[in-house]
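Lab meeting, item 3. Inverse folding demo.
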């Protein structure tokens, strides 16, 4: 019996090869989307799920409140690590992780070559202690886990980093080798661990002993004794003792925090928090520098897209399968007359659906590696597909194939198996099912176009918001500005700046710190005392004081306007500050000019006078409102800002300028790399997530429209087949081709319009919710809905014309021959 089912299914597939290919195309689209999104969601949810006692591992974070604004930071004051280790009970391990500062350059002496090899900008270099290796199940290849980082000037390397620094050297012989970091930090290799190949947010590759900090100038750079300020690279992890209660430990930590500094008043509050390990990868509120996070809302949205595409594919299959009913009707009648039961026919049709779905699944599995490569820009680097080595993926495909076969094939199987043999053999297969009563098929088609219309409107609005963000007046110039960093050695700064400023292609330049806006930022603990009460802004990444500094040319390069006072003056001993309008208002100045001459206190010590007020500008993306910001006159810092003159059309003036600037930098610092970036690219990068969302949404839109049009084609083929004789009679009575085309099309256009009426309010609601994440957003314009609706109607008419014109031009004699 099973062999007979397979044989009949294969014959049905080859006999209707065109429809079979359409079936496979539609189903493979849905299955491919589901498979890729399943791989992505599974990968993201596998982060840090393998650690021993992972439920006892936490990251210490900060919760901040300034007035009515709240904020969070994944970084903590550096002295917290030792204080918690010495004073807080219930903690089994205290693990500080301090990101390496500077150029991250490693110099290694190769004995055989007798020369020093330089490795620049090495990622994954941290200062930590021995308990770090209790957080992750590292495999030790050389050295002692218990003592490798006990002494200052020690380092543990991963196997790959050891092979990079000491190629061809046996790992046991690497122990005792010396590495020099940034010319002033010599260390000795004391351990080698195997590279960690499981998904984790702890991705370090070089581990320098934490005790090294206290023996070097890093003590001051890392602010190891400062409780009221901290660096973004100062992270702290805890492993609680068995039986310890996290809430109790946290309460004791905050009591200790208050002991070392006053962090609470009526307006402001600063507290420790404990973030569970399994929350780190998904909590965007605590995203730190260099940390890739996944948004659970985005993952749920992707799952919804995969579900919709699968649903569209199943609806498409259903409509096309019922459209083929007339071609199978006589076969069904003969099989029933010969004794075939309805259950046998249902199983036969489901087996045919399974055969087609299986082929679609194989096509999808074959396409998946190419799809992962095609969308590599939007996918995490560790994501891969290996069907035969991943049982869970194979099980997912088996379950998906069975589910799709059942959902897509059940309705056609029930309908086709229900034909009466007497009516079928009299060529009256459609006698009991006139087109105007084919309600289920119409509902399915409307459902398809509701989903497609929703995607079209959403794609328009996401693109509109991105365009709004990139073209909005941000309060500064962003075109034709070049940013790059110089090495820390300031010896050649003056010569470099003079040569660059004298280039004919350069309009203006400045040196100092970060540009007006970029991902991340710098913050300072700044207070202002008006003589009656102290008003401070804590280190809050969302609403706190952002810090920029540099020379007076900074405002000219970026064309930042002053609304009160004057610019900072030039000079190495000048220490003056500008504040923005938001900070002036936060400090209580009703007239902006009243802020001039007042003093700000930095980190509780140095007082700096306010000499001007800048017009507000966006220091980050439009997701966040403009917050308080201070610009300080300082000559430290090697971040160079170069404003280029307008480039005449057809010339290469900017490329020539970049080449000259690079040559100047390389002549002064032969070992340095000249890496530049245009400022407008930095602005665009702030919306990388939105641009990726837009691209993926455009793909989903295109696929949903394609599948919906295939379903519409199936319904019009069914209708044309059912109304063949009616059309023949109309033509004999004088109906024109255009009249018949409009007659057949009007009903389907009505379905598309109904879909638009349903989809429009749903899309408006969803887009409004998405736009709430932007403090500054584009309006939801009426024309977006009109254009989207018209576009989908045009696409539907083009799809309809493929079959309606063909039906209207058919010879009526052929359709009436059986009467």
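The presenter then showed the designed sequence:
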């Amino acid at each position: 019996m099973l062999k007979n089912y397979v044989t009949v299914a294969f014959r049905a597939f080859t006999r209707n090869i065109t429809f079979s290919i359409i079936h496979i195309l539609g189903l493979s689209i849905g299955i491919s989307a589901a498979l890729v999104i399943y791989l992505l969601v599974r990968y993201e949810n596998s982060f840090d799920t393998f650690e021993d006692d992972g439920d006892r591992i936490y990251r210490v974070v900060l919760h901040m409140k300034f007035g009515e604004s709240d904020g969070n930071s994944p970084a903590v004051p550096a002295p917290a690590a030792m204080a918690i280790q010495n004073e807080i009970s219930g903690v089994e391990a205290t693990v500080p992780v301090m990101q390496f500062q500077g150029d991250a350059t490693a110099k290694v002496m190769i004995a055989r070559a007798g020369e020093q090899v330089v490795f620049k900008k090495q990622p994954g270099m941290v200062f930590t202690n021995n308990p770090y290796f209790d957080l992750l199940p590292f495999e030790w290849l050389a050295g002692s886990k218990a003592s490798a980082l006990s002494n200052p000037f020690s380092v543990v390397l991963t196997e790959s980093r050891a092979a990079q620094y000491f190629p061809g050297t046996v790992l046991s012989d690497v122990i005792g080798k010396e590495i020099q970091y940034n010319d002033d930090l010599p260390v000795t290799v004391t351990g080698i661990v195997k590279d960690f190949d499981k998904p984790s947010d702890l991705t370090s590759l070089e581990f320098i002993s934490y005790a090294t900090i206290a023996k070097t100038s890093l003590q001051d750079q890392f602010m190891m004794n400062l409780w009221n300020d901290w660096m973004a690279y100062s992270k702290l992890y805890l492993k609680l003792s068995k039986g310890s209660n996290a809430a109790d430990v946290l309460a004791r930590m905050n009591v200790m925090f208050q002991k070392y500094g006053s962090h609470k008043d009526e307006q402001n509050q600063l507290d420790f928090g404990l973030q569970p390990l399994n929350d780190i990868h998904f909590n965007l509120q605590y995203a730190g520098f260099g940390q890739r996070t996944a948004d659970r809302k985005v993952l749920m949205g992707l799952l919804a897209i995969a579900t919709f595409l699968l649903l569209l594919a199943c609806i498409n299959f259903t409509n096309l399968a019922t459209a083929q009913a007339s071609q199978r009707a006589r076969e069904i009648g003969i099989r029933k007359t010969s004794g075939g039961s309805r259950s046998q026919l249902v199983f036969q049709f489901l087996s045919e659906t399974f055969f087609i779905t299986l082929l679609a699944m194989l096509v999808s599995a074959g396409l998946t590696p190419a799809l992962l490569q095609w969308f590599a820009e939007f996918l995490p680097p560790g994501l891969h597909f290996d069907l035969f080595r991943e049982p869970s993926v194979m099980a997912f495909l088996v379950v998906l194939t069975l589910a799709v076969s059942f959902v897509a094939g059940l309705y056609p199987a029930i309908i086709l198996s229900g034909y009466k043999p007497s009516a079928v053999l009299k060529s009256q297969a459609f006698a009991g099912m006139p087109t105007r009563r084919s309600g289920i098929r119409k509902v399915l088609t409307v459902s398809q176009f509701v989903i497609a219309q929703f995607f079209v409107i959403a794609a328009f609005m996401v693109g509109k918001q991105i365009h709004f963000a990139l073209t909005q007046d941000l309060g500064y110039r962003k075109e034709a500005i070049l940013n790059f960093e110089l090495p820390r050695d300031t010896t050649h700064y003056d010569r470099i700046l003079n040569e660059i400023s004298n280039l004919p292609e350069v309009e203006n330049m400045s040196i100092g710190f970060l540009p007006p806006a970029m991902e991340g930022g710098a913050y300072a603990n700044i207070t202002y005392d008006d003589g009656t009460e102290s008003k401070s802004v804590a280190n809050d990444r969302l609403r706190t004081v952002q810090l920029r500094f540099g020379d007076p040319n900074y405002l000219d390069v970026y064309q930042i306007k002053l609304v009160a006072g004057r610019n900072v003056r030039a000079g190495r001993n000048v220490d003056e500050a500008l504040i923005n309008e938001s900070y002036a208002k936060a400090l209580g100045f009703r007239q902006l000019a009243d802020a001039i001459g007042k003093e700000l206190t930095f980190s509780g010590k140095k007082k700096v006078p306010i000499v001007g007020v800048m017009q507000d500008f966006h220091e980050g993306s439009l997701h966040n409102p403009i917050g308080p910001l201070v610009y300080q006159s300082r000559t430290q810092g090697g971040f160079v800002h170069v404003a280029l003159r307008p480039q005449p059309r057809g010339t290469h003036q900017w490329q020539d300028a970049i080449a000259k600037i690079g040559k100047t930098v390389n002549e002064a610092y032969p070992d340095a790399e000249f890496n530049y970036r245009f400022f407008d690219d930095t602005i665009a990068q702030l919306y990388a997530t939105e641009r990726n969302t837009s691209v993926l949404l455009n793909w989903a839109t295109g696929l949903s429209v394609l599948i919906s049009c295939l379903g519409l084609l199936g319904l019009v083929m069914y209708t044309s087949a059912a109304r063949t004789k009616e059309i023949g009679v109309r033509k004999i009575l004088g109906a024109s081709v255009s009249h018949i085309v409009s007659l057949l099309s009007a009903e389907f256009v009505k379905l598309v319009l109904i879909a638009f009426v349903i989809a429009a309010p749903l899309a408006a609601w969803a887009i409004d919710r998405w736009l709430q994440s932007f403090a500054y957003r584009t309006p939801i314009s009426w024309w977006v809905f009109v254009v989207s609706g018209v576009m989908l109607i045009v696409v539907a008419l083009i799809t309809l014309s493929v079959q309606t014109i063909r039906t209207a031009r058919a010879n009526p004699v052929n359709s009436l021959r059986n009467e």
